[in-house]
Design goal:
Strand content: 5-15%
CATH class of the largest domain: Alpha Beta
Structural class: alpha/beta
Distance between the termini: 48 Å
Radius of gyration: 19 Å
Number of domains: 2
Shape: globular
CATH topology of the largest domain: Rossmann fold
Largest sheet: 5 strands, parallel
Number of helices: 10
CATH architecture of the largest domain: 3-Layer(aba) Sandwich
Bound molecules: guanine
CATH superfamily of the largest domain: NAD(P)-binding Rossmann-like Domain
Order of helices and strands: HEHEHEHHHEHEHEEEEHEH
């Protein structure tokens, strides 16, 4: 039996469930959720993410628009677009693809999005609510990781989880969600001393550091579950690869996510779920 956690399959099932939910929502409320994505510049990675998000939304029946603006847009101009979308009652979700050009303050832009339309769950209000365990949207990649672990039958309660990476988008929030599942969580990062000693204690190892082959097989406890959040270009062949040396690690781990086809599809599916949740929350208000 394969020990590969198939994120593509789990994400597909989630998207199918959402498509059915959208059909029901339209019957009840007479409209479907509406997502607006803002893409600044032409970074190939960002263009590809945004295209994937739009395709998933359309397949689910979520109305969606991508607003494309050149890299030269000013912060004021971007904030004006967001203000317009905030005021539009027919818009349920707003997503600004990151990173933004250096002359724009990302935190200002994120804070300008109405928290109830913040499908990324990056707004300080939503981040605060998540840490306080108050009802709110959850960040897509961490949410997708928890779903993948549960779908793969991995017990979380009482387990030693090591998260490598401390970003606002993945490392920190996934640690909190794991804590909510009663795991014992260690956050390691680029300055952690004796990293291998730390990772070898992990029953579940989550890697979000953004460096190809950063985690090698000798850093993994035999039988551990490995979740690879990395999206890198393999310097040997230019193909997409994660942060874990998959070829070697798959022989040590009891279960492991591949790149591509692991966490990535879950992030997009969870973004779609967040869009539907924002729609539902807004409509009952
Ligand atoms: N850039 C890389 N990941 C993400 C994400 O999850 N959301 C947004 N908005 N931008 C990103």
């Amino acid at each position: 039996m394969s020990n590969i956690i198939n994120g593509k399959e789990v994400a597909k099932a989630l998207r199918e469930g959402l498509a059915a939910r959208v059909v029901e929502l339209e019957k009840i409320h007479g409209r479907t959720p509406n997502l607006v994505v803002i893409l600044v510049g032409e970074d190939p990675g960002s263009v590809s993410y945004v295209t994937g998000k739009a395709k998933a939304a359309t397949e689910i029946g979520i109305r969606n628009t991508t607003i494309r603006r050149p890299e030269t847009i000013t912060e004021e101009e971007l904030l004006a677009i967001i203000a317009e979308l905030n005021a539009d009652a027919d818009v349920d979700g707003i997503l600004v693809q990151l990173p933004l050009p250096k002359h724009i303050d990302e935190q200002n832009v994120i804070a300008a999005i109405l928290p109830e339309k913040d499908v990324d769950a990056f707004h300080p209000c939503n981040v605060g609510k998540m840490w306080l365990k108050q009802p709110t949207v959850l960040p897509c990649t961490p949410k997708g990781i928890i779903k993948l672990l549960k779908e793969s039958g991995t017990e979380l309660s009482g387990k030693n989880v090591v998260v490598v990476g401390r970003s606002n988008i993945v490392g920190q929030p996934v640690s909190k969600l794991l804590l909510n599942e009663n795991a014992t969580v260690t956050i390691a990062h680029s300055r952690t001393a004796n990293l291998k000693e730390v990772t070898l204690r992990a029953d579940i190892l989550i890697v979000a550091i953004g460096k190809e082959r950063f985690v090698t097989a000798d850093m993994i406890k035999p039988g551990a579950v490995v979740i690879d959040v990395g999206v890198n270009r393999d310097s040997r062949n230019g193909k997409l690869c994660g942060d874990v040396d998959f070829e070697e690690a798959q022989h040590v781990a009891s279960k492991i996510t591949p790149v591509p086809g692991g966490v990535g599809p879950m992030t997009i599916a969870c973004l779609m779920e967040n869009t539907v949740e924002c729609f539902e929350r807004r409509i009952v208000k």
